[in-house]
Amino acid sequence: MTVDLALARARIAQARAEATARVASLDEQHRGIVEGSRWTTDDDEHDPEGSTIAFERAAVASMLRDARQEVRDLDEAEGRVDAGTYGLCERCGREIADVRLDALPAARRCIDCNSLRR
């Protein structure tokens, strides 16, 4: 199997567009939560809604970090396309299955090697 570079670039571009949109949405949500919490007490322990706001802020911040990391991973995948190593497992050197790349365009390892990850 030879990697179809046009397909690889399209796959990565689509995933990057989705991840970038997710970053923008989550960033907006996070700003809204932070702005909204300015009008509440800083005492999360005694404020009936404080723990809910803190949890929501932490959850959105975590999803935002993950989405930003996904964009970075996709940028690295684009670099592997340019280098001619996209679709090759970084651990064993075998080709990564198309179905895996369809699901995870930034995949760096084949399924076998990923299950051994330590």
Keywords, separated by commas or semicolons:
zinc, metal-binding, Znf_DskA_TraR_CS, 118 residues, TraR/DksA C4-type zinc finger protein, Znf_DskA_TraR, mainly alpha
What can you tell me about this protein's structure?
It is built from four helices and no strands. It has 118 residues and is mainly α. It has one domain. This is TraR/DksA C4-type zinc finger protein. Keywords: Metal-binding, Zinc, Zinc-finger. Residues 84-113 form the Zinc finger DksA/TraR C4-type domain.
Which helices and strands, and how do they pair?
Blueprint: H1 5-37, H2 50-83, H3 98-103, H4 111-115
InterPro entries: Znf_DskA_TraR, Znf_DskA_TraR_CS
Protein name: TraR/DksA C4-type zinc finger protein
Keywords: Metal-binding, Zinc, Zinc-finger
Give a quick precis of the structure.
With 118 residues, the protein is an all-alpha fold. The protein has one domain (5-87). It contains four helices and no strands.
Radius of gyration based on Cα positions: 19 Å
Strand content: under 5%
Number of domains: 1
The total strand number stands at 0
Termini distance?
28 Å
Based on secondary structure, the structural category is: mainly alpha
The biggest beta sheet is recorded as: none
Mean pLDDT: 89
| H-E string | HHHH
Total helical elements: 4
- The rough form would be described as elongated
Protein name: TraR/DksA C4-type zinc finger protein
Domain Zinc finger DksA/TraR C4-type: 84-113
Organism: Rhodococcoides corynebacterioides
Zinc finger (dksA C4-type): 89-113
